[in-house]
Amino acid sequence: MVEIAEVQRGLEDVVALESRICFIDGKQGRLIYQGYDIRDLAARSTFEEVAYLLWYGRLPTASQLTDLKTRFGALRSLPHQVCQQLDQLPAEASPMDVLRTTVSALALYEPDETRPGASSIGGAQRLTAVLPTILGEFHRRRRGLPALTPRPELSQAAYLLYAILNREPTELEAKAMDVALILHADHELNASTFAARVTASTLSDLYSAVTSAIGTLKGPLHGGANERVMQLLDEIGSVGRVEEIVHGKLVRHERVMGFGHRVYKVEDPRATILRDWSRRIGEAAGNLHYYELLRKVEEVVHREKGLYPNVDLYSGSVYSLFGIPPDLFTPIFASSRVAGWTAHVLEEYQDLRLIRPTAKYVGQVDLPYVPVAQRS
User: Fold this and answer.
1) Where are the domains of the chain?
2) Quick check: is 184 catalytic?
3) Average pLDDT for 240-265
4) Which label site among 80, 116, 202, 320 has the fewest CB atoms less than 10 Å from its CB?
């Protein structure tokens, strides 16, 4: 048998490809999009600017940004046939299943946007513009709310909140969501992005690649951690019970979500930014309950395990204060990460090579074939 190099479980530390899109410095706790530090982008930029940056490798001029915002507004409507399909989906369906199914179906009505190659930038913009509409339309149907009215004048962040909440967000709410979308827009070769690139490497179309990514993000080991953080906070109830419950979970070797990261050895810079926004939104709402619980949970976990928070620890508290249902947290993640997924797909098309790793075979060989009549 041919000897295979040592297996790297989960492909940890395996360098699979070259990319200009995103850089994670795990030792220094830095996240870089196309050369720009995430702290600067979160403080000074918008999600629309970041999407443009991820796709084109540079920040837009004022006119380019205006054009992109106009295009997003024009691309938010769903084809009539897709709306009919949404009407037929069960109200109790998982929103991630709805998102995956609807993105796949959408490709049937937009054949010109699905072809691989440079022209797929149109599909990238279309998917980024329309994911909030898919979420909003499904959520409104299951809640008996009015159908979604197009609001092309709203930013992506404000439109996402409007689509889900059926109300105009405040300026502070829209800014907080804008920051959250920026922070989740890309994160190098995470599982869903890698899935998208594997699909694209076969020369499949953009919509198939994004469908693969959504299906991967649905898995609870990738998406959904912020939802489980909120479940923990509801279980704890009050700051006085944090020590007992969290310590008990750690003693029983149960995982406390929102801590640790495969790449970061220090605090995730996205957690640092979202911690501040959790406090600001809590103060604006006159409700610091979640923020105070999370600060205490942080204290206990770091003291007992030396773990730092990641992006999932605080994002759910912000969404909950907006009034967003927990089962929409991961679809909101997708509404942001689609910009990164599509940027990686476009990059894959430019330097195409089929992604095909090797497995170390550990089964038997040279077994004699036994005719079916002789098998016991």
Assistant:
1) 19-220+326-350, 225-322
2) no
3) 92
4) 80
